[in-house]
Amino acid sequence: MAHQATPSSQKALMMELKSLQEQPVEGFRITLVEESDLYNWEVAIFGPPNTLYEGGYFKAHIKFPVDYPYSPPTFRFLTKMWHPNIYENGDVCISILHPPVDDPQSGELPSERWNPTQNVRTILLSVISLLNEPNTFSPANVDASVMFRKWRDSKGKDKEYAEIIRKQVMSTAADAERDGVKVPTTLAEYCVQTRVPSQDSSSDLLYDDLYDDDMEEEDEDEDESEMESLLTLDKAKYPHA
């Protein structure tokens, strides 16, 4: 592996990967790009029901720095995305992925930025929230931001933004079929946790060495309720166009 990896970052990533495989976040599938590289993850995001993204299958990469969790990872969509907070190259512009420096001109508080208590779960929840409720104050894609505001302010009568998103959603069907994935289209299907079995049984040996079985397991109920509340809020604010 080309990274100048540190034992602490490897251990942190191994623990998070095991946790996410045992207690997945609804609407996401997590795998390693390569089994031997803990620093590059592939994420598949299912578009939440009752939103413009319903039925979509969006792929992304999370790339972790060697000093994780002290520095934030990057989150880049591989699927073409038209969104106020996603750059043309797929990079997501979101406060939680920005280093915790004091930059008054950014309009962000240091508390809104990355800190070592954040993790992949909080990143995933932040990204799905951002998809449904963009930040138009500091857009990465100005044209998408203007178009989104027209759609929102017209309460869906201006359909240009919605039509672009739906076309992108439809274009993801081929990827889902190629990957053998059935994309959930109802809330009941969406909230079923998608466990991804380990492709390499030898990786369990690594988990045994690095994962403390006596650690208190994270409470997944909080993630479930937060995800459901996000979807309910988004449906109420921006009904499906």
TrEMBL record:
Keywords: ATP-binding, Nucleotide-binding, Phosphoprotein, Transferase, Ubl conjugation pathway
EC number(s) reported in the record: 2.3.2.23
Xref: CDD domains: UBCc_UBE2R
Catalytic activity: S-ubiquitinyl-[E1 ubiquitin-activating enzyme]-L-cysteine + [E2 ubiquitin-conjugating enzyme]-L-cysteine = [E1 ubiquitin-activating enzyme]-L-cysteine + S-ubiquitinyl-[E2 ubiquitin-conjugating enzyme]-L-cysteine
SUPFAM superfamilies the record matches: UBC-like
Region (Disordered): 195-241
PROSITE patterns named among the record's database cross-references: UBC_1, UBC_2
An example Gene Ontology molecular-function term: ATP binding
Domain (UBC core) ranges: 8-174
Pathway: Protein modification; protein ubiquitination
Compositionally biased intervals (Acidic residues): 206-227
Active site: C93 (glycyl thioester intermediate)
Membership in a protein family: Belongs to the ubiquitin-conjugating enzyme family.
The name this protein goes by in its record: E2 ubiquitin-conjugating enzyme
Organism: Amphiprion ocellaris (Clown anemonefish)
